[in-house]
Design goal:
Number of helices: 10
Shape: globular
Order of helices and strands: HHHHHEEHEEHEEHEEEEHEEH
Distance between the termini: 25 Å
Largest sheet: 7 strands, mixed
Structural class: alpha+beta
Bound molecules: ligand MTE
C-alpha cells in the first residue's frame, strides 16, 4: 500500500498551479482585512460560546509585543488569510485546507513540559509562558520544502530564554520537540502509517542561535490552531517541516532524534534541512519559491536569506547532509 503522503507529495507540482483555487483571489477582489476580521471575530465568538463557552471566556489575549526590527524580511508580509487557510498540519489531514477542522483543538488549558538533560525540569502553563517570557514580534520568512513561501509577523520569544530557565546539562546535545496527539479532534491520527507523534529537533547550538523562536502569536493575535497554536517553533533558515506545531514536550537529550518526515522517507527529508536553492529535492527543484497570496515566483536564497546569522553553525560539518 502506498501511503497517501507519497501520492500527495507526488501531486505537488500540479498543486502549485493555484490559479483555479477559490481562495487565490487577486488583491483587488480581496475583502479589506478589517471587514473580514470583524465578521470572523463575531462568528468565532458566536461559535465559541456554543462550543466551549467558559473555556473561551477564560482565554486571555496576546500580550502586546514590540516588533524587533533587527530581522528584516526583505519582502512584503503575506496576507493573514492566506497564512491561516493554506496549511500543513497532517494531524488534521493530509491536505492544505485543514483550518476548519483545526478549530476543534482545545488550546486551554495547555501545558508544555521541558525535561530530559536539564538541571531544572519544569512544566509550564501556556498563560505562564505568555506572562513571563520576553515577548517580541519578528517578521520572518517561512520556506516550505514544497517550494511555497510566506512572510509572517510572528509573536514569540527566543528559545534560549526558555532554556536559560531549565539549565541544560553540559551532556545535552539536542533539543527535541514533540507535538500534541489528540485523537478525538485530529482525524489524521487515524492514518496509522504515519509515525505519530510529529517530532522534530535541532542541535543545542542551533537552539541557542538568536533566530530560534518559540511562536505564540501571529498578526498581533494569539496563534490560531491551524498554524500550531497555542505554541510552535520556527527556525526561519530551515525548511518549514522543522517547525513543530502545537508543542507539548521539549526534551533535551544526547541522542540525535529521527524526526517524523525522516522516519517516513529519509532519502527526502533529513535532520538538518537547511534551505539551499542549489540542492534539489529528489522530485522537484528548490531554485524558486512561490509566494502565498501573490503567486509570485522568486529565487530561493541559501539559508533562506539568514546566512549572516547561521552559516557559522555549519563549519566543520561537511560530512553531514546539511540541505535536505
Ligand atoms: N507540525 C505538526 N505538528 N504537524 C505537521 O504536519 N507540518 C510542517 C510544520 N509543522 C506540520 C508541523 C510543515 S511541512 C510546514 S511547511 C509548516 O508546519 C507549515 O506551517 P503553516 O501551516 O503555519 O504554514
Amino acid at each position: 500500500r502506498v501511503p497517501r503522503l507519497y501520492r500527495d507529495k507526488e501531486r505537488l507540482p500540479a498543486m502549485h498551479i493555484l490559479k483555479s483555487r477559490p481562495w487565490n483571489l487577486p488583491e483587488s477582489r480581496v475583502t479589506p482585512e478589517a471587514l473580514v476580521f470583524n465578521r470572523r471575530q463575531a462568528m468565532a465568538l458566536g461559535a465559541g460560546m456554543l462550543a466551549a463557552g467558559p473555556a473561551m471566556a477564560q482565554q486571555a489575549g496576546l500580550p502586546p509585543a514590540m516588533r524587533n526590527t533587527r530581522y528584516v524580511p526583505g519582502r512584503a508580509i503575506t496576507a493573514e488569510r492566506e497564512v491561516t487557510t493554506y496549511n500543513n498540519f497532517y494531524e488534521f489531514g493530509s491536505h492544505k485546507t485543514i483550518s476548519p477542522t483545526a478549530q476543534r483543538m482545545p488550546m486551554r488549558p495547555w501545558t508544555v513540559k521541558v525535561e530530559g538533560m536539564v538541571e531544572a525540569p519544569r512544566e509550564y502553563g501556556i498563560e505562564d509562558l505568555l506572562a513571563r517570557m520576553p515577548l517580541e514580534e519578528r517578521v520572518y520568512r517561512l520556506r516550505c520544502v514544497e517550494a511555497w513561501a510566506m512572510v509572517v509577523p510572528w509573536t514569540g520569544f527566543p528559545l534560549s530564554a526558555l532554556l536559560a530557565e531549565v539549565k541544560p546539562l553540559s551532556s545535552a546535545r539536542y533539543v527535541v520537540f514533540q507535538t500534541a496527539t489528540l485523537p478525538s479532534v485530529m482525524p489524521g491520527l487515524r492514518q496509522t502509517w504515519y509515525p505519530w507523534p510529529y517530532t522534530e529537533g535541532c542541535t543545542i547550538a542551533e537552539a541557542a542561535n538568536e533566530l530560534s523562536f518559540m511562536v505564540v502569536g501571529a498578526y498581533g493575535k494569539l496563534l490560531p490552531p491551524q498554524n500550531g497554536g497555542p505554541i510552535r517553533f520556527h527556525q526561519p533558515w530551515k525548511y518549514g517541516f522543522k517547525a513543530g506545531k502545537s508543542i507539548v514536550t521539549i526534551r533535551l537529550t544526547d541522542q540525535r532524534p529521527v524526526s517524523f518526515w525522516e522516519k517516513l522517507q529519509s532519502q527526502e527529508y533529513g535532520f538538518w534541512a537547511n534551505v539551499n536553492p542549489a540542492v534539489p529535492h529528489p522530485r522537484w527543484s528548490q531554485a524558486q519559491e512561490r509566494m502565498l497570496g501573490t503567486g509570485e515566483s522568486v529565487p530561493t536564497q541559501i539559508f533562506n536569506g539568514y546566512g549572516d546569522f547561521v552559516a557559522d553553525l555549519y563549519t566543520g560539518l561537511q560530512g553531514e547532509r546539511l540541505w535536505a
